[in-house]
UniProtKB/TrEMBL annotation:
Gene3D superfamilies the UniProt entry points to: P-loop containing nucleotide triphosphate hydrolases
Classification via Pfam families: UvrD-helicase, UvrD_C_2
Domain (UvrD-like helicase ATP-binding) ranges: 200-554
Binding locations of ATP: 221-228
Taxonomic superkingdom: Bacteria
Annotated PROSITE patterns: UVRD_HELICASE_ATP_BIND
Assigned keywords, A-Z: ATP-binding, Helicase, Hydrolase, Nucleotide-binding
Record-given protein name: HelD family protein
UniProt key word ATP-binding: yes
Length: 703
C-alpha cells in the first residue's frame, strides 16, 4: 500500500494488513496440509507420530474468526537487533514503516498478535506476543519508551478491526491518557469461559508472566487482580521461551476444583497451548487409592501438618533391622560367606546416604553380591557381571535383604500408622502429642488398603510415603492457583512434582477457607521446597468495581489484618445495592426478583448463597420458571444464570451477582473467621453489579 494512503486512512491500511496476514496464515496452513510424509518416514510408527505432529500444527494454525490475529503495533525508533527480535520460534514480523515524505527508512514496525505469521517469502507479518521484541508493547511508557516511538492498540467488533488508539511515547506534547480499549476490554460482558488477556496485560503483570523458568514466583493479590490470568499466561510464555525443555518435562496447572478447572480450561488453547495438564491436588495424589471418606477438621489439620512427614520418614525407616546372621551363598561345590558385621556396614552406609528407601532396597542385594565376588576373586576365580547378578538373585541373598531391608508398601504403611496405636506412638513420639495421635487414629480401623475409607488427607500421606520409597517424577513447571488453601503436606506433594523444575504460586491470604490455610507465603514456599522464591504483590483490581471492593474490604481487618485493600481500576457508580427484607419468608421472592432485574442486563449472573440455602433457592428458581446452571457449566447468551454454592465461588466471576443472606454464608463455616473469609470471596465475584439481600442481620464487620 502506498504511504500516502496509510497516512490518510490508517484504518483501511491496518485492515489491509489484517487481510494479508489472514491470507498468509491460510497459506501456512495449506503448506502444512500439503506435506507428503510418505517419502521421509521409514516405517508406519514414525509416520503415525509425524502425522500427529502435523495434525497438531494444522490445528494450531487455524484462523479463529473471533480472536483477532493481531492486537497491537509497535514502531521502533531504531532497527531492532536480531537477538532481541528473535524469539525461540524463529523469525519475527518485521515491516518497514510506511515511508514518510522524505522516504527515509528508520526503525521497524511490528504487528503483535497471538501467534507468528509469515508471508510466502518467510517475512514475518505478525509476531508472537511472547517474543522479546513484543515486550515493549506491555512495558513501554512515556518515562521509559524502550525505543518505541509509536504504540498502536487495535479494537475489534466481532472479527472486524474497527478501532485503533495511538500513543506517541516520545512526543512530549501528547498528554497521558488511560486506554479506552483497555477499559472496554475490562468491561466486556463475561459470558462463556475465562478469556485470555493477551492484548491488555499490564506492566506489573507482564513482569511476572515473563520471569524466567529457573525461579519460582509467588504472587499475593486480592480478588480480581489477575492472578489466575497471569499464571496461565506465564505457562504460555514459558512454553514459548523454553518449548523443547518443557515439552520433555511437562507442565501442570493446579486449581481448587473441577468447576474452576472447567472455567479456565479454554485460556491456554486460545493462546495456542494444548499440552498443559490441569488437575486438582486430589487428582494428583488419588492415583494410589480411592478417596471415599472424610476427616473431622481437627484430624485433617494434623494429617496435613508438615510434622507428619517426619513421622512417615521414621515409620518407613523403622523397617530397616540390623542383620543378626551373615549370608551364605552356595554356588556349585563352594560356599561363600558374608558376615553380619559386613552387611551391617553396607546398611549403615545406605542409611547415611540421601537415598530413597526403595532404591536402597534395590541396591543392597548388589552390594552383598559384590562382597561375594570379591571373595571369589580372592580365591582365584574370575567372575563377571552376570555372576554378580545371579548372586544378587540368590535365595539366600533375597532372604537376607527381606529380613534387613524389606520392601515397603506406602498405602499399607499409612494404614498401619492410622490404625495401630502402638506403631503410631513409636514413630510419632516427640513429634505428635498423645492427644494428636488419638485424633488421627481411625475410629473404625479398616482391615485392608482396599476396604479402608481413605480421606483426601490420607491420600496425601500415602503420596508422601510413596515418595520416601521411590522418587516422584518432577515436571518442568507447575502453576498452583488458590494456593492459600493447601496444607503443608499438600505443598510438599506439589513440591515433589516440581522438585527439579519451578513453580508459580498464586493466592490471596484473605481468601483462605480451609482449616489449614496458609498464614504466610514464606512458610508455604518452605513446605513447597522453594524457600528462595520471590513474593510479588498485585494490587490493581480488574474485576470488582470500586464501591463493591470497598464494601468487601471492610472485612479485611477481621480476616487478614495487615493486607491492603485492592485498588479497583473500575469506577462503576451504582454497582452496589444492599437490601433488607422484613421477614425470612420474603427473602426468596426478593432474591428471585433481584435475579430477574439482573437478567435485564447483558452478561452472566451468579446467584451465590450458603450451601445449605441452595436447595431452597433451586426450588424457588424452578417455581418462577428460571432455568439455571451449576458452577463450571458454560454460560451462553441463552443461559446466563448460575446458582453458586458459596463453597464453589472461589476463582469464578459473573457480571452481576446476587448474594443471598450473608449471615448464612458465615454460619455455614465452622468458625467465624473462615465464615467471614467465605463471605469475602462471595462479595468479590461481581464485575458490574452486586445486590446483597438479607433477612437476618448483616455480620457486624460489614457494618
Ligand atoms: N490486564 C488485564 N486486562 C484485562 N482484563 C484483566 C487483566 N487482568 C485481569 N483481568 C481480568 O480480571 C478478572 C479477574 O482476573 P483473575 O480471575 O485472574 O483474578 P484473580 O486474582 O485470580 O482473582 P481471585 O482472587 O478472585 O481468584 C478476569 O476477568 C480477568 O480476565
Amino acid at each position: 500500500m502506498p504511504a500516502h494512503e496509510e497516512s490518510s486512512n490508517p484504518l483501511a491500511g491496518e485492515r489491509a494488513h489484517l487481510a494479508a496476514s489472514r491470507a498468509a496464515l491460510r497459506a501456512m496452513r495449506e503448506d502444512v496440509k500439503a506435506l507428503d510424509i510418505r517419502d521421509v518416514t521409514a516405517n508406519w510408527v514414525n509416520a503415525a507420530v509425524l502425522q500427529a505432529q502435523i495434525d497438531d500444527r494444522i490445528k494450531a494454525l487455524a484462523d479463529l474468526s473471533h480472536t483477532p490475529l493481531f492486537f497491537g503495533r509497535l514502531d521502533y525508533l531504531h532497527v531492532v537487533g536480531a537477538e532481541k527480535a528473535e524469539g525461540s520460534s524463529g523469525g519475527v514480523a518485521r515491516n518497514a514503516p510506511a515511508e514518510g515524505g522524505g522516504g527515509r527508512r528508520e526503525g521497524e514496525r511490528f504487528y503483535i498478535g497471538r501467534r507468528h505469521v509469515h508471508d510466502a517469502h518467510g517475512d514475518p507479518m505478525v509476531i508472537d506476543w511472547r517474543a522479546p521484541v513484543s515486550q515493549p508493547f506491555y512495558q513501554a511508557s512515556r518515562n521509559n519508551p524502550l525505543d518505541v516511538a509509536h504504540r498502536r492498540r487495535f479494537g475489534y467488533t466481532g472479527g472486524e478491526l474497527t478501532a485503533y488508539e495511538d500513543e506517541h511515547l516520545t512526543d512530549p506534547a501528547e498528554p497521558e491518557q488511560t486506554s479506552k480499549l483497555l477499559q472496554a476490554e475490562i468491561e466486556r460482558p463475561r459470558v462463556g469461559p475465562m478469556r485470555d488477556i493477551v492484548a491488555t496485560i499490564q506492566p506489573e503483570q507482564d513482569e511476572i508472566v515473563r520471569s524466567g523458568l529457573g525461579g519460582t514466583v509467588c504472587v499475593q493479590g486480592g480478588p480480581g487482580t489477575g492472578k489466575t490470568a497471569v499464571g496461565l499466561h506465564r505457562v504460555a510464555y514459558l512454553l514459548y521461551a523454553h518449548r523443547e525443555r518443557l515439552a520433555r518435562t511437562g507442565t501442570l496447572v493446579i486449581g481448587p476444583n473441577r468447576s474452576f478447572l472447567h472455567y479456565i480450561e479454554q485460556v491456554l488453547p486460545a493462546l495456542g497451548e494444548l499440552e498443559v495438564q490441569q488437575a486438582t491436588v486430589e487428582d494428583l495424589v488419588a492415583a494410589r487409592v480411592e478417596v471415599r471418606g472424610t476427616d473431622e477438621s481437627a484430624a485433617a489439620v494434623i494429617k496435613g501438618d508438615a510434622r507428619m512427614a517426619e513421622v512417615l520418614r521414621r515409620a518407613v525407616r523403622s523397617h530397616v533391622t540390623p542383620p543378626v546372621d551373615g549370608v551364605v551363598v552356595v554356588r556349585g561345590s563352594r560356599r561363600w560367606r558374608v558376615p553380619a558385621y559386613e552387611i551391617e556396614e553396607m546398611v549403615n552406609e545406605l542409611l547415611a546416604r540421601d537415598m530413597r528407601y526403595g532404591a536402597a532396597h534395590e541396591a543392597l542385594p548388589q552390594r552383598i553380591a559384590h562382597a561375594v565376588l570379591v571373595r571369589m576373586e580372592e580365591a582365584g576365580e574370575a567372575p563377571d557381571d552376570r555372576v554378580q547378578n545371579a548372586v544378587a538373585r540368590n535365595p539366600a541373598v533375597k532372604a537376607a535383604v527381606k529380613a534387613v531391608w524389606p520392601a515397603v508398601d506406602p498405602a499399607k504403611l499409612v494404614l498401619r500408622l492410622l490404625t495401630d496405636a502402638e506403631f503410631l506412638a513409636a514413630h510419632a513420639e516427640g513429634i505428635l502429642t498423645g492427644d494428636e495421635q488419638k485424633r488421627v487414629l481411625a475410629a473404625k480401623p479398616a482391615r485392608s488398603v482396599k476396604s479402608a475409607k481413605w480421606t483426601a488427607a490420607d491420600a496425601v500421606l500415602i503420596d508422601e510415603a510413596a515418595d520416601l520409597v521411590a522418587r516422584t517424577h518432577s515436571l518442568g513447571h507447575v502453576v498452583i492457583d488458590e494456593a492459600q488453601d493447601l496444607s503443608p503436606m499438600q505443598y510438599r506433594a506439589v513440591g515433589r512434582r516440581c522438585s527439579t523444575g519451578s513453580a508459580t504460586v498464586l493466592g490471596d491470604l484473605a481468601q483462605g477457607t480451609t482449616p489449614w490455610s496458609t498464614r504466610s507465603w514464606e512458610q508455604a514456599l518452605f513446605h513447597l521446597g522453594k524457600a528462595d522464591a520471590v513474593v510479588e504483590e498485585l494490587t490493581a483490581g480488574f474485576r470488582v468495581p470500586r464501591e463493591v471492593i470497598a464494601y468487601a474490604s471492610r472485612l479485611l481487618p477481621a480476616i487478614s489484618p495487615g493486607l491492603a485493600p485492592v485498588e479497583s481500576v473500575r469506577e462503576t457508580p451504582g454497582s452496589l445495592a444492599v437490601r433488607a427484607v422484613e421477614t425470612a419468608g420474603e427473602l426468596d421472592p426478593a432474591v428471585i426478583a433481584a435475579c430477574e432485574e439482573s437478567l435485564r442486563h447483558e452478561g452472566s449472573i451468579g446467584l451465590i448463597a450458603a450451601d445449605a440455602r441452595i436447595p431452597a433457592l433451586a426450588a424457588a428458581l424452578g417455581a418462577a420458571g428460571h432455568a439455571y446452571l451449576s458452577p463450571g457449566e458454560e454460560t451462553t447468551a441463552a443461559s446466563r444464570l448460575t446458582l453458586v454454592p458459596a463453597s464453589l465461588a472461589k476463582g469464578l466471576e459473573y457480571d452481576y451477582v446476587v448474594l443471598d443472606e450473608p449471615a448464612a454464608v458465615v454460619d455455614g463455616e465452622p468458625d467465624e473467621r473462615t465464615g467471614l473469609r467465605r463471605l469475602y470471596v462471595a462479595l468479590t465475584r461481581a464485575v458490574s453489579g452486586l445486590v446483597v439481600l438479607h433477612a437476618a442481620e448483616l455480620p457486624e464487620q460489614l457494618g
